[in-house]
Amino acid sequence: ARLTGDRGQLVPAGAVVRDVVALAGEQLVLVHAEEPPDLVRNQGSTPLARWPLAGGSRTVLAAGPAAAAAYETARAEWKLLTAAALVGLTERALGIAVEFVKTRETMGVPVGSLQGVSFPLADVAIGIAGARNLIRRAAWMAENEAGAHPGLIPAAFAYAAQVATHGATTSAHMQGGLGFTAEADASLYFLRAKGWSVLGGDPAADITAVGDALISRAAATANATV
User: Fold this and answer.
1) pLDDT at position 226, please?
2) Residues of the chain with pLDDT under 70
3) How far is CA 87 from the centre of its chain?
4) How far is CA 187 from CA 24, 121, 124, 172, 201, in A?
5) How far apart are CA 42 and CA 133, in angstroms?
6) Under the phi-then-psi rule, with left for phi > 0, alpha for psi from -120 to 50, and beta for the rest, what region is 98?
7) What is the separation, in whole angstroms, between the first and last Cα of the chain?
8) Phi and psi at residue 60, to the nearest 5°
9) Is the Cα torsion angle 35, 75, 92, 160 positive or negative in sign?
């Protein structure tokens, strides 16, 4: 989390933890509470809680540039792991849809044999494969060539969020009216896809970060050749 004032801040998983790492100015601090704050109810069923980060017991972990660097590294790793979770969610939503269209029939054939059904499902499968490969690439680069391609992790997160929303929506569509009922698994996956995608802020900001990284890289290359 980033400590922005006395007002409590929404923290992912904040309702199930007693310790939160936050950036307070130029200090990286560990904020401890005896009990987690109350759950903030949300449609994505994520354990959000509003933490009073300015209160409680605090331990300074680092200060200055090292603190900011450690915070950004931790935040990037969290986004990468969340992107991986979104891919897993999408794969399961796709599996539900595939099983449904294999058993539902129209005009004597499974609905999954129709192009209007099979092609959108194939698109979701392609998106899952692409997002998984991008996440693996970003993870490898972060481990072995940290800082070489700063746009990879935001690209992986933004794309995983896009794939998850599209995949969960397609899964619901393939199950017709059943998929839109509140108790249907397809609807639950859709709500989680949307909820998990915004835990770290608007994914559009990650797309902007990718653009900034590409511009910076191009400018550095241009200056090196002058």
Assistant:
1) 59
2) 1-7, 55-56, 179, 225-226
3) 9
4) 38, 17, 16, 6, 22
5) 31
6) alpha
7) 41
8) -80, 125
9) positive
pLDDT, one tens digit per residue, over 80-122 is 999 999 999 999 999 999 999 888 878 888 877 888 889 999 9
- pTM here is 0.85
d(CA 115, CA 10): 44
Q: What pLDDT is recorded for position 1?
A: 60
Location of structure tokens 């354990």: 47
Exposed, middle or buried by CB within 10 Å (0-12, 13-18, 19+), for 201?
exposed
d(CA 59, CA 8): 18
40 and 15 in contact (C-beta within 8 Å)? yes
- Paired tokens of 180: 């839109």
Q: How far is it, in rounded angstroms, from Cα 201 to Cα 153?
A: 14
Closest CA to 24 of 10, 49, 8, 5: 5
d(C-alpha 136, C-alpha 149), whole Å: 14
Rg (CA), the chain: 21
d(CA 222, CA 203): 29
Q: Can you give the pLDDT at residue 80?
A: 95
Q: How far apart are CA 176 and CA 116, in angstroms?
A: 13
